[in-house]
Amino acid sequence: MPAFSASAPGKIILFGEHAVVYGRPALAVPVTQVQAKAIILANPSGSSSIEAPDIAINSPLDQLPTDHPLAQAVSAVQTELGLKRLPAFRLKITSTIPVASGLGSGAAVSVVIARALSAFLGRPLTEEQVNAIAYRVEQTHHGTPSGIDNTVITYAQPVWYVRGSPFERLNPGLPFTIVIADTGIKVFTGMVVGDMRRRWTEAPGTYEDLFDRIGAISREARQLIENGRPEEIGALMVNNHELLRQLDVSCHELDMLVTSALNAGAIGAKMCGAGRGGNMIALVHEDNAPTVAAALSAAGAVRTIITRVK
Ligand code: PMV
């Protein structure tokens, strides 16, 4: 029996994280420089197993806790296809997307499992089904995910996303360049999102106002991006970062990297994803990208990625 494989990119949120959980629009784009991959083959004489060396897993499937995201993705596929049992397989997951860093590693792994396993079973799922499975796995781990991560990663396109509505493709009028820099601080999205929700419950007015202001920035950014004026989103990134600071989801390291990027000539910069660690992004002139990336490394970033949005 042949092997089946699937891959999916990472992602960054350009504008609107956190506010998107509360119904405001957000913009996200795939990052193809990092990828998750799944490869699966039959194991006719044995039992099913999962190997994921990046997270030190090499285990029979039935010995993984049932609430483990890898086991959950497998059982979500089984449920979706209405199968009582699965033929034995060996599934290997590899990923260059850093874990717990705001680049969508969890959603990408669910997407590749859904694609590779369903193809192996001879019942390839539609993109819509794959997206729904990745969302369900996110829900059990993140509580109240907006759905933006699984959507941008499943469809591997720039997206304009409003929770509960079908996503719209974001169509940049001109390409632009982003430098991504990792603080190296691992943060679990569910924790930051849960903390945000507790604070929102205590003072909804304050947070609703901040979310509205972030939503307004996302709307303005979409116009500028689609009208081929990407350089003008630089100021919006700085404003969005300031609002995220007011939401108390930034941290010293993220703020420092934002400042370093701007000092090195970036047109704009902000944290991206859940915050309190993970990655930040900087909008740069293409020819200045290596300089900004070097400045970010000198300021303590553990890794930088240069990506082109188009
Ligand atoms: O997984 P991250 O770190 O990219 O964060 C997701 C973005 C949030 O808006 C904070 C949560 C969500 O579900 O949209």
Brief account:
The chain is an alpha+beta fold and 310 residues long. The chain is 41% helix and 24% strand.
The quaternary organization reads as single chain
Number of helices: 9
**How many strand elements?**
11
Report the radius of gyration as a whole number of Å: 20 Å
Distance between the termini: 38 Å
| Main sheet specs | 7 strands, mixed
Order of helices and strands: EEEEHEHHHEEEHHHHEEHE
Beta-strand portion reads: 15-25%
**Judging from the principal axes of the Cα atoms, what is the shape?**
globular
Give the mean pLDDT.
97
Helix content: 40-55%
The ligands found in this model are: (3R)-3-hydroxy-3-methyl-5-(phosphonooxy)pentanoic acid
Lay out the secondary structure.
Layout: E1 4-15, E2 26-42, E3 49-52, E4 57-60, H1 69-81, E5 89-95, H2 105-120, H3 127-142, H4 148-155, E6 159-161, E7 168-169, E8 176-182, H5 189-202, H6 204-226, H7 233-246, H8 252-263, E9 268-271, E10 279-284, H9 289-298, E11 303-309
Parallel strand pairs: 3-5
Antiparallel strand pairs: 1-2, 2-5, 2-6, 3-4, 6-7, 8-10, 8-11, 9-10
This protein binds (3R)-3-hydroxy-3-methyl-5-(phosphonooxy)pentanoic acid.
Residues 13, 17-18, 20-21, 102, 104, 145-146, 148-149, 189, 193, 273-274, 278 line the site of (3R)-3-hydroxy-3-methyl-5-(phosphonooxy)pentanoic acid.
